[in-house]
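thread: overnight batch results

M.L. [08:02]
morning all. the overnight job finished for the chain we discussed friday. pasting input first so we're all looking at the same thing
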Amino acid sequence: MSAAVAFSLGMTSCSDWLEMPSYNSADSETVFASEDAAELFVKGCYRGIVPTEMFYQLAAGETVTHSCEDATTNNGKYNICNWFYDSTSPYTVTTLYNEEYSTIESTNIAIKRLNNLPETAKRNSLLGEVLALRAFAYNNLITTYGDVPAIWQPLEDLDPKAESTFYPKRSSRDGIYDQIVVDLQKAVDYLPWFDASGFPTTERITKQGALALLARISLYAGGYSLRWNLETNDPATLKVARRSDEARVKEFYQIADKACKDIITHNANSLVQGQGDMSGFQYLWYNFCQRNLAVANNEIIWSLAEYGPNTNSKFGVYAHPGVRGGTFGSRKALQFILPTYYLSFKKEDTRRDVTCTSYSIYFLESGAANDTWVDVGTTYSSIMPGKFRISWCVEPQGTDQRNLNIPLIRYSDVLLMYAEAENYLNGGPTQGAKDALQQIRNRAGIGSLSIPTGQQDFDDALVQERKWEFGGELFLRNDLTRMGRLPKELAATKQAMKDLSDKKNQYANIPVYRLYKYHKDAQIYGDKFLAVEYIDLTDATEIALVKNVPTSSSGYAAYQTVLAGIVSAHGKTVQTGDKWYPANLFEAYTSTFNGNARKAAGFGKGYNVLQIGNIVYTKPTGSAENGGTYPNWIQAPDGSDGLYYGYKENCSELLPFANKSAGHPMVDNPNLTQHPGYK
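M.L. [08:03]
and the structure it wrote out:
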């Protein structure tokens, strides 16, 4: 037995099995000599299935989340977010390919060896896990690159003299989907339901997880994707379409429909509901961030375990309200939420202030230990992601860690996939489809919204509901493609941002001024704080009063008295010591007015800085506030797009293989053909 295997046999905890040393193929016989040893290997197969690039780069650009690093838009994250990439610059994804094939190699080994063990319930469960993990890895590859090499055996079983062993060609994605759907159907039969698994959390795949993944992958297999002729690799053949076999497409939707129905009728899963002052949505994500995973088990069907000093991904580091110093350390938000998404929520929808934070954590003076930290209200150009905010987390071991599991499948996704499949198969929504959508809306507080009865209108509603429900999570970008909605949604968002900037059409009467209540940050992990209290101002007299902000401290007290009067007029109680400050939401956070307004509430040296990439927060949202032209992040001065400027229909839906240096697919494998749009 090797030292690596001997070391791994002593590991038992969630964090331990994620920190296993690399497997050596020479250990194969020993590792799979018993089910207990094999289980440790299977646990190690979960590592790497969600590379950092999946959420740092490929989880943005979906009309919800956007990149916002400092100083320049000329970086890989910002360009990929805007659907601009090529094969030889940093503007492509470089590690996902290798990470997913590493998982595929590990699962191929496990599938082979487990099939050689005597059939028992435990062996079958382990086999079900690795079949599902391999399917998940292949789907990540296909949704990123399209047709990719199909490798179904471990490297040790392949002919070392065969060119295809080390230089495999692209394989038809349809063939891969056919195989992994069959694999998942086997996995469903092998795996126990969660309540019979004995697992304390849903960090490992159970029958629910396999069924939900089967539904998701079936919808991708039957949905839209960018296709081309693999034989000719002719750019003229590029087209977003479903596979040509309509009967097979229908079969995939039937498979998805049944898989979701099996989960629903098993009646062990549900949406987390509110407790105390928290809505159900807040209660779910607060407890998820706090690692109170038992609270979330019924809804989060599968999450990737991330915990411990060595294996603790950066998930959540990039997507959060920025924080400057204090208990939480200093960390910039490198993603922001488009204001059109923030404004798309109905007023009563409890998901908005969980998914979007219109505040950031900053100090009043210079950040000394005795300074005061505040949750400072922001503007439309600096709304940040909120589901994984650092103040909700448990204390991490390091600045690049969050102790956050990565949510992969939730019960709400099962309900929406079921509604989608029912709508497709029946030419319109069935009562079951309507009921599934109604459950989600009821939990969100918008159950009074009418549910469409026509097929297209219901499909439109599902697209929007997925955005509201899954904003800031991983798969919205790819969902827009598989649902055939990508060009329409990107174009609509670009136009909506211009309309918002111009304050016209649906945004003609949008409030410009907001009064924020001064709020000290608790500076403790586990703080339940959700959102800064505010009042949107529409009365011309009130707006004139708040615009008269003093520029010296001698006028601050009188100004606060004026603001207190406005607050009282809106039916809110003003307590002794309360302070408020206005913000012009269409100006930059750093505008003279906004800066002076914060000073009047007691902000000192830290009055005009946020912990967010400065390519947006120092810029306005309004065209009038930008001298009569759109800010560059909405539209460039020459009239070209500022949002999604790289998107080319029938091309950008998939990324090219990286072709820059050794370690990249196109360099290492001469038999790979490039995405024909990037040759």
